[in-house]
Amino acid sequence: MDIVIKSDNKNGILNERMYSRNDKPYGKSWEEWTSKWWQWLLSIPKESNPGIDTTGEKFDANQNDPDVVFLVGTFGGSAERNYTIYADKSILFPIINFTTSYIEEPFLKTESELKSRAKKDIDDIVNKEAVVDGMKLQDVEKYRVQSPVFDLTYPENNVFELSSGSTRAISDGYWVFLKPLSPGMHDIHAVGSCSSGKTRVDITWHLDVKE
Fold first, then answer.
1. Would 155 be classed as within a structural domain?
2. pLDDT digits (tens, 9 = 90+) for 65-88
3. How confident is the model at residue 63 (pLDDT cuts 50, 70, 90)?
4. Please, which residues have CB within 8 angstroms of residue 152's CB and are 6 or more apart in sequence?
5. Which long-range contacts link 63-69 to residues 24+ away (Cβ below 8 Å)?
6. Inside any domain, residue 202
7. Sign (positive/negative) of CA torsion 80, 142, 87, 65?
8. 21 is in which domain, residue-wise?
């Protein structure tokens, strides 16, 4: 049975309320889950994509997985969103992450080049923090996840304004994978930036967790 984060217990270390990096929640590794997160997010056309949502109105609490709800940050910049989710689902969200593909960067020709490109981008991240209900993530470096190379399909009018079609992609970044939250209100904050400050994300989710 999954441990539930109690809404009235704000003390402690966030890591204790998360899956460990060696866990395979619902039979999948963190690497597999982060690939699935990107496949889901980038399949959504720009007009309804939650990554460019300023309020939370484009969020679908049901999504397409019975066990895990995906929270989405921004593609750069700040946002504050109000979501309603269900207490029986675990929660996966990025602190800061990166993806690329052969369509996005056609000069990349091999899986090795995809991996090096993603690694280089995330190696430059100097600030990465996550706080849930006042509990801060410790040892953030342990929660860096580089996915395997995965299949990805960009729809028409995709968020990156790329040619539509199928390709191969990879992601890298820092993630939090929470066990189910108890019913009630919960606040999650994540922030990350690169060494120059050019790349920066700052996201707050106010979650109303229902039975």
1. yes
2. 889 999 999 998 999 999 999 999
3. confident
4. 38, 39, 42, 101, 166, 167, 168, 169
5. 64/40, 65/36, 67/25, 67/26, 68/25, 68/26, 68/33, 68/92
6. yes
7. positive
8. 14-210
- Single out the residue of 180, 209, 170 nearest to residue 68, CA to CA: 180
Residue 26 lies in a domain: yes
Q: Which residues, 6 or more positions from 116, have their beta carbon under 8 angstroms from its beta carbon?
A: none
Q: Specify which residues 169 forms β-bridges with.
A: 101, 150
> Is residue 57 assigned to a domain?
yes
Total structural domains within the chain: 1
pLDDT digit string (tens) for 82-130?
999 999 999 999 999 999 999 999 999 999 999 999 999 999 999 999 9
